[in-house]
Amino acid sequence: MTTIAVVSAGLSERSSTRLLAGKLASAVQDSLPHKASVEMVDLREHAHDVINALLTGVPTGALGGLVRTVADADALIAVTPVFNASYSGLFKSFFDILETDSLAGKHVLMGATGGTERHSLVLEHALRPMFAYLRAVVVPTAVYAATSDWGGASGLEKRIALAGKELADLLAHRAPSAKPDRYANVTPFAELLGGLRK
Description:
Blueprint: E1 2-8, H1 16-31, E2 36-42, H2 47-56, H3 61-72, E3 75-83, E4 86-87, H4 89-96, E5 107-114, H5 122-133, E6 137-138, E7 143-146, H6 156-171, H7 189-197
Parallel strand pairs: 1-2, 1-3, 3-5, 5-6, 5-7
Antiparallel strand pairs: 3-4
């Protein structure tokens, strides 16, 4: 069975970060042709253990199990609140304690929440480079939700559905849905060059 680890770095029990993480997980499940097992990882419950693991280099107790859950999952959904125009320290610290290559080749869907729309680029300027460094395969659509997005008229649900479908497509071993290739009928340069040499 396909397993999806969902990492939420929300700091409150009913945070918008946790809400977005759950909606993204549901969107992936709705788009998959088969059932998936979803493992939710709420980092707020393990914050002290994350700091201890940074200091000792060894994730112990329940945190060790969460690290294995993320490493063994077929895909990862990772959602962070935005603080000072970047991901939260707790979010980054968790990924700092993962073993090298834990996320190499793993399919990842990124999300972030914040009070204002002005921080939406955190996904492209902070999260995407971090996951690229960890050699994860990140879906094209990342989802940012500002406070004003939760009203229903912002298109947030459409973005969630699109991102979920992209991850589901990868998990189902097919290329993510895309717009028609406008270059499909264009002769490749190598062929043109070969024709010139004749």
